[in-house]
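Quick one: structure for this chain?
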Amino acid sequence: MKHTKHAKLTRPALGNFGRNEWSILGTVCGEIDKLANSLLEHFGSKYNTVYIDADHQPADLDNPQVALYTDKINFQRLEWAKPLNSYQHRPLMNGYDFILVNGNHAKAKKQILVIDQKKKESISRKIDRLQDIQLILYKNEEKEIYDFLIEQIPGIKEVPSLKWEETDKIISFLEEKLAAEIPALNALILAGGKSQRMGRDKAQINYHGSAQKDHLYKLAKQFVKESYLSIRQDQESPIKKTIKDAFVGLGPYGAILSAFKEQPDSAWLVIACDLPYVDEGAISYLISNRDPSKVATAFYNPETDFPDPLFTIWEPKAYLVMLQFLAQGYSCPRKVLINADVAEIQLGDKKWITNVNTPEDFEKVVGGL
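Got it. Here's what it folds into:
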């Protein structure tokens, strides 16, 4: 066997800054800023949006070893002198759904190329930044792509194009692209618990004509791209679509992280097996209220006054957030929901999050199903 030094992990589809990043390049910075501001104004109400730019003014920090954090009341500011690389940019930008980059200063995964004679020579030196041109904007009635681009970038003539001043059409183009980037939703049925309080496997209890794990697996499958059963390392299952715990000993927290480890670009509809009242209506209601711009979409539990973590949609950005909590010594999914940017929605029926953990709970619930 060929020796490999490192484990083969599924890497999320990230660029230099995050998942959905676009650079604008090919014209002067002032013009790029104007277009970026128009896009930020439009998309900022729907998406978490950030603009990446550069400033050539001298730094205000006299001591490069000292960082400065300032609570500006209306916003927060963190300044430091040391340069950052992509591995440091990505955690900072994890919460953003639409990342705009001044392409004169930095690379991005996707590009909007401006054809402007004033920057023709500059573009000839930035071919390496043109890896995935999604849109071409013609400035000042110029309709010809530079010859050196035609020679070096196959298919560039087929790239969609607009006039620079057609801001509304540019926005419509990007709206379609951003809508298509909403992460696909999978289901994760939590069936790996040891059921110590119940005294028997909660996943095997028959509430609806079959084992609860099988019932929820089939139920969720109607609403998602793929449905998976989450199990421990020592468990086996006739269901082929399983995810075994890669984060051992962390309960549901480890199960969710294990799902993200396998498919880090998917969102996960997580349903615990001890929720006998979850039905088609409950799942449909949760999905219809999903907010992909948040870390998660969760039901507010009026009894605990907290969001409920185990009948919840977790977005891909939750993966890094959960790992950061784990690095600080926390493995409680509810704590993540309480302290992260989540969408809390009201319950259509409070029974949806009623869980059964003990024989006494079972006796109370079974007669009402």
